[in-house]
Protein 1
Amino acid sequence: MGERLTRQEQRERNRLNLLQAAEKVFAERGIQGASLDDVAAEAGLTKGAVYSNFAGKEDLLLAVMRHRLTQEARAQADRLLHSDREADELVAAFGAYWVEVVRGADQETFAQMTVELMIHATRHPAVREQLLDLMFPPGDRPDRHPLAPPGSALAELPYEQADAILKSLDIGMRLLTLLAPEHCPPELFPTALKLLGGRSADGP
């Protein structure tokens, strides 16, 4: 006998299917080239199901990003960054984690969709504002970024500036890894983290 879901459970399942379908469709066709009909068809649902969950295309795109940033992988990153490890140990652990995530089977579509959304946001202020809230959430911050070893030039910067530099490294290397992995393999990211922290590329 098939699984029987409550109305709320079915709604949540439909929403997840739409998020997964949207990521795939927008990555393949771009924001301008894809429609909500395309997303609904990919999810095996109706366009009405899209509008019962999302206000429109931009709301759906931001929901995909929000969903991705709250998944277990992001939670693991947050746990690493807020652990009590020494900075050098944390840099090594975070670099290894980054390589593992970027080499994941589902990272290509997410990277493609992220680039599409970021370009779209540069032309649409309301989307830009919401995307920046996701990328730079408000809240109390320590004086030193956890990935900036004490005594390094990076550690001398305010948290917000160091965070912006590290996010730029993250986004830029994700894109280059997708575009030209032979020139920018994921393993360069841990090396870049060490260099930013004033450490030797060959060090621990």
Note: The mean pLDDT is 88.
Protein 2
Amino acid sequence: MTSLSRRAFVTAATASLLAGCAGQENDRPETAHSTGTPAPSRSAGKAAPRTLARSVPVGLRIPAIGVDTPVMRLGLAADGSMQVPPIEAHDRAGWYRHSPTPGQVGPSVILGHVTVGAYGDGVFRHLAELRRGDRVVARLENGDRAEFAVTSVRTVAKADFPTGAVYGDVDRPELRLITCGGPRSGAGYLDNVIVFAAPASASP
């Protein structure tokens, strides 16, 4: 990742947008509902997973929850926070373009809505139902596929978003899927659902 991208990545990571959901509360403790702890960056005794050339993700499949979505590119909003996909009928996931592309070393970040206002359910409406070992496949612009397996699913209060665990450096390709969750507050949600995934070939 270039130094410019790294700065943009950290700036957005520390901003409190977190998948673009309203209803943030600053006094709730973290509530974690996990299907497993995030896996270490590399399992002892295992060969490093193959990395892929940088290529923008154009599609995302998560068979266990019926997701097969195009992926748009997201940058930074005017306030320095991470952009989120627009609220529209044909909801799509969005890849944060200052993060590594799927299959590159580092945490690639993809966001999606759990609901899209009057249009109903969002593309990540069932994200919290994923379990350890479920497969996630990113289709890349160059025709490659980056395949991951879920290692952990966490629901956390937005005020206690685990920035280091989500955006911190790792020594292999990893994937983070983020949406909203938990109880509603006004038009938004109080929590975030975060899926951690590692290369399928390296997962137990």
Note: The chain has a mean pLDDT of 82.
Protein 3
Amino acid sequence: MSINSAADLPIHAGERISALTPGVELPRHVAVIVDGNRRWAREHHTDPAVAYRRGGDRVHELLTWCEAAGISVVTLWPLSADNLRRDRGDVRALVQVIGEVVGELADARRWQLNLFGNTALLGPSERRRIREAARRAGAVSGMTVNIAVAYDGHEDITAAVRSLLIEHARRGTAVADIVDSLTSEQIARHVSLTGQPPVDLIIRTSGEQRLSGFLPWQSAYSEFYFCDVNWPDFSRADFEAALLSYTRRSRRYGQ
């Protein structure tokens, strides 16, 4: 694992283009923590709902950039389980925009959508709307787009272990035998995003330099890139700077 922020990399316009040229090894799986919407709203003296909608429009652009770069999987984290503990009016506006964006992505019929996280924490109508939109695009071929809604990394691992224990219980496996045979590979088959390429690059906007519980299991060998720009202002130049940073890394996978 290595970490860079935008400030660590002096990027020139020509270099950004080089990150997308043939022969350059780019990440197969990019995850983005779409942070800084409320900060953008404060800076622009506007309502958070305006920032959420602008950030939602940015999702469409990001996916187009990723598609053009040949990236296979994109994972987005717009809403954590902790977010749901904030002021309910603010959260309602965010969940409404998430539902709108998921619906728009489904209607585009360009990408395969995969929803994960604890959507049971949402209200019934919100949950139904988001799940139905994701189902509409589930069979679409093309780039895979994972959207983490009400996601909690600790709960992800807890649920994986719970699922694994239920699987063994159905087989009648004794507890002592489970303990003796338990491996990280077995748990990995039950966490979110199993069966997909490993997360190569995690981008976080807004200048915060932490993962906040995002994909703790899946990010063991990920590269991190922290960008000072708030999500509604995230540009193609910022995206290409992140890719260029990735191409400069020497990935060692813990060795």
Note: The first helix runs from residue 13 to 18.
Protein 4
Amino acid sequence: MSDQLELDSDLQALGGATAAAAERYIETVRQVASGATPDAAIPLLLLATSDLTAAGARLGAIVDVVPASRFEPDDGPDPDVEPLRLSLVNLLEGIDDYHEVSDPLVSGEVSEGSLSNDLTDIAQALLVGLNHQRAGNLSEALWWWQFSYLSDWGERAAAATRVLLGLISHLRLDVDPDVAGEAKFEALHAADDAAGTVDPSRG
């Protein structure tokens, strides 16, 4: 039986918004992992993780959600995300692994991370919540999304966003100065031609 009526309107709205964000994230990651958009893979993943991080922040900003039942309802088997993980490993070969400070609040210890693991673990946590939400157990879905955000996928999404932003920054900014100078020169002359600029030295 649905527990949605036991939630106030604000929590119902938050549940709907979180479910929509979760579905957008999962759809985007699956599309990228399939190899359908190789040239846009990194930008699409950055957009997906950034959007999801904003949705997660709303979960972290509210008081603890209390589920309607003391026990987690059986709303289906745990999702199998291993095929997604393997596809991401292949897609991200050479740029998958990274280093990060494990917990900057308590130590400067550096650990190793993996984009493919991060993206897949996030998807798995979101899918568990979606199973509850689709079965009508919205308070359970909200509780799970909030708990797993604070304990795991929020940090994984933040780390993945940082790494993806770093990849794009390197791709865009790590350009040979001579190449960048030639591109700027050509762009300036193209703009002059478009504006009909005349060189006064030619009378």
Note: The chain has one domain: 4-198.
